[in-house]
Amino acid sequence: MASVHESLYFNPMMTNGVVHANVFGIKDWVTPYKISILALLYEMTASKISLPERRRLNKLILPLQQGPDLTLGQFLKTVEECCPQTAYAVKLRLHEIADGEMKDMEYFFSTLPTPFTAFDSEAYKTSVVGLFMRHMILAYNKLSFSQAYKLYKLLQHYYHSHYAKPTDGQMGLMVLIADDSDMDLTSTEDTIGDRMDKEEQDTPLHESELQGDNTESRGPLSQKQAEYFLARQAYLLKNDENKALKPAVLQEELNNMLKFNPDFAEAHYLNYLNSMRVQDIFLSAHSLLHYFDRLILSGNEGKSNGDEGYGRSLRYAALNLASLHCRFGHYQQADLALQEAIRIAQESNDHVCLQHCLSWLYTLERMKGSDSTVLMEDSVKMAAHFCLPYLASLGIQSLVQQGATQGKTAHKLMDALKDTDILHWKHSLSELIEISLTQTTSIWRMYGKSTMALQQAQLLLNMSSLEPVNFGVHQNNTEAFAVALCHLAELHAEQGLFSAASEIFHHLREQFPPHTQHAKLWMLCDLKIQFDKHMNERKYHLAEPLVKAISALDKTEGLYRYHRRVGVSYPYPLCCPSNRAFNNRKAQVLSALNRSTEAYNILQRLQVHSEKTRCTEMIIRVMLSTAELHWESSGFSTALPVLLQALALARQHHLQSLVSETALHLAVTQLMLGVPEQALSVLHEAMEPVLAHGAVIDKGRAMLLAARCQMAVAGFGPNRQGHPDVQLALLAVGSLNEAAAYFSRLNCKERLRDVHYLQAQLYRSLGQTLESNKSAMLFRLLDQELQSPAPLASMRL
C-alpha cells in the first residue's frame, strides 16, 4: 500500500508502464469534474485523515484522473466509499464555489496548495498528482475572461444538476457544451457540425438497437481517456469478464465513442471482442475488418515500418480472421484465411507470423479430427528456435493433451508438463501456468486419480496470480479457473456432498453469469450432476427433461445420456469440461424406459462417431452400455467378449477408472454365468482403486456386488447344497452394511431396498431372526414408499 502512495506523490519512476502511458491522460481543458478532483486533493492536504482512509484515497486518485468524467453524484459516492468525511468536505467546498461568485473560483485556484507554491505539499513536482495539478493551474491561467465565465457556469450546472430533476436545465447544458470547444487549449479544428458529418458517414452497426430514444448524448473524450477506457475494458474482458460492462452497455459506449472518431481503430477491436462475448459472428467479423482497415488507413504501422507495416497489418488481419472462423466452427473459411496469412507471411519472410499460423494450423486440423501430431512437433521445434516460449509451451500442452487420449503413460505426460512449468515460471507466463494446472487436474481425473485431481485444482485456486492486479481484479476469472471449479464441483458431487457442490456452482454463477462466454462450462457440469443424481435415485420423470437442456449445450452429451442403464453413468470427462467429453444422456433414459432397440441403434451411431474422432473413453463406455443391453436379454455369454475388449482397451490407455468399472461389469457377467469364484477374484483386483478414488455410488455398487459374490461362493444361492461357509457369510454381512451406508449418503432408496432384501435372506440363513425381521421391515417400508416393482438384481450392476 505504501508503494501506491509513493508512486502518486513522490517518485514517478515507481509507477508501471501503464501509469506512465496515461500520466497526461486528462482532458486538455479544465472541466467541472477536474475541479472536483482538485477539491478532493485540497481536502486531503488540509484535513486530518486516518492512514487506511488515505491509502484508499491514494488508490482512487489515478482512476479518477484517467477515467471519463463522472457526474457529481457518482464522484461523491466513489469518494464516500473510501472516506465519508472527505466526501462531505469536498461537497462543502464545491457548494461554496457554485453558490458564491466567480471570485470564489478564482480564490480556490489561488489558494490551492501545489508542490510549486507550498513547501509542505505532499505531492512531488514530477509525480502523477503534481503534474496533474500543474497542468490544471496552467490551463486555468490561460483562460480568457469569457472562457473563465463559461467554466464557472458549467461548474454551477454541474453542481446544481445533482439536486435538480433530470430534465431541468438540459438545454442550457447543451449550449454550454456546444461552446466548450473555445476552452480547449489545443484548439482542435473539429467542430460539432463536422462531427455530425462523420457520424453520418460511418455509423456503427446495431446502434439503433442498443441506444434507446432517451439515451443522453455524451461529449467526446480525450484521446488518453478513450485509451484508458478501452485498456480497462479489454483487461477486464480477458481476466474478469463479470466486472466489465455488460455487452449492450459496452456496445453503447463504443458506438458513442465512434460517433466522434469513426477512425479509432482500438475501439473497433474492443467492439470485436465484445461481439465475441455474445457469439455475434457478423458484427465480430465486421468490427475486426474495420479495425485493420482503420489501422492501415491511419498510417500507424506505416509511420514506423513503411511498406512493411502495411503488409504486417494485412497478414495479422488474415490470421485473426482465421481464428475467428475457427472459433465458430467454420473450418473451410478458417482454412482459406489461414492459407492467405501464410502466403503473405512467406512473402514478407515473417517467421513470427508463420509460427502463429502453424499453431493455428495444427489447432484447426485437430478440430477437424485429423492427426496433427507432426504439425505440433514441428511447431514446438520452430518456436523454440525463434525464442517464442509462449507458442512452444502451447504446442507442448497440445501434445500432452493428445498424448493423454492416445494412451501415453502418466509419468511421461507429467514430465512434459513439468518442463513447460519451468518455462512458464522463467518467463512469468501466468496464463499458461493456470492452463497447465488445469490440464494436470483433467489428466488425473481421466486416469481415475481423484485425490491428485483434487490437489491440483486446489493448488490453482489458492495460487497468487502473477498478473498485475489492476482495476480491482483479485482473481483472474479465465476459462482455466472455470474448468478447475467445475472439476471441484464434480469431485464433491461424486462423494455425495451435493450441498458443497451447490455452493461451488453458486460461486460460479456469480463469477461467470449466464451471459459470459465461459458460463456454458458450469451450466453443462451442473446439469450432468443433477441428471446423475436423479438417475441414481431412479427419478426418471426428473431426469428426462434435463436431457433436452444438456443437448442444447452439447448434442453428443445429450444423446449418450439417454441410453445408459440406471445408475451406471458417472461424470468422467475426457480431459476437461471444455473439451466435449462426448458423454451423452439420451440412450441412458431409453434403456431405463425399456426401449432397448432404439438405445442399441444410438449406441452404434455413437461408436462410429467415437472411432472417427478417436475418443477412446467414449468407445469404452459404449461397449459397457452394449454389454448392459445384452444383460437385458440374458445374453451374458454374448456380453463377455465385448467386456474383455473394453478391459483391454482401458488398460492400454491407462484409464484406471474405466478399468475398474469394466471389471465390475465383468464380475456381474461371470456371476450370472455361474462362476462366482472367478467373479470374486476379478472384483478383488478392482476393489482397491474403487475404494481409493471412486465415487460413492461406485463404492456402494462394488460392495453390493462383493456381497452377492460372497453369498454365492458361501453356498447361499437358491440351489445350495451342503453346509454354507459361515466365514464368507459374515464377510457378506459386512459388505452389505458398507453398501447400505454408501447408498444412504446418496439417498438411493431402490438400491437400499435391494440391500435390505439380501440382508433379510442372509440373516435368516444364519439363524439371526431378529436382524432378519428388522431388515425385512426396512425392505417393506421402502417397497411401500417406492410403489414400483424392483428390477431383477441380475439385470443391473
Automatic annotation (TrEMBL):
Main subcellular localization, coarse class? cytoplasm
- Ranges for domain Anaphase-promoting complex subunit 5 N-terminal: 30-162
Any single Pfam family the record assigns to this protein: ANAPC5
Q: Composition bias, kind Basic and acidic residues: at what positions?
A: 192-209
Start and end residues of each Anaphase-promoting complex subunit domain:
268-366, 630-687
Asked if the keyword Repeat belongs to this entry, the reply reads yes
Q: Where is this region: Disordered?
A: 187-221
Q: Which UniProt keywords apply?
A: Cell cycle, Cell division, Cytoplasm, Cytoskeleton, Mitosis, Nucleus, Phosphoprotein, Repeat, TPR repeat, Ubl conjugation pathway
Identify the metabolic or biological route this protein is part of. Protein modification; protein ubiquitination
Its function, per the record, reads: Component of the anaphase promoting complex/cyclosome (APC/C), a cell cycle-regulated E3 ubiquitin ligase that controls progression through mitosis and the G1 phase of the cell cycle. The APC/C complex acts by mediating ubiquitination and subsequent degradation of target proteins: it mainly mediates the formation of 'Lys-11'-linked polyubiquitin chains and, to a lower extent, the formation of 'Lys-48'- and 'Lys-63'-linked polyubiquitin chains. The APC/C complex catalyzes assembly of branched 'Lys-11'-/'Lys-48'-linked branched ubiquitin chains on target proteins.
Family as reported in the entry's similarity comment: Belongs to the APC5 family.
| Protein name according to UniProt | Anaphase-promoting complex subunit 5
The source organism is: Nothobranchius furzeri (Turquoise killifish)
Q: What does UniProt list as this organism's lineage? A: Eukaryota, Metazoa, Chordata, Craniata, Vertebrata
Q: Gene encoding this polypeptide?
A: ANAPC5
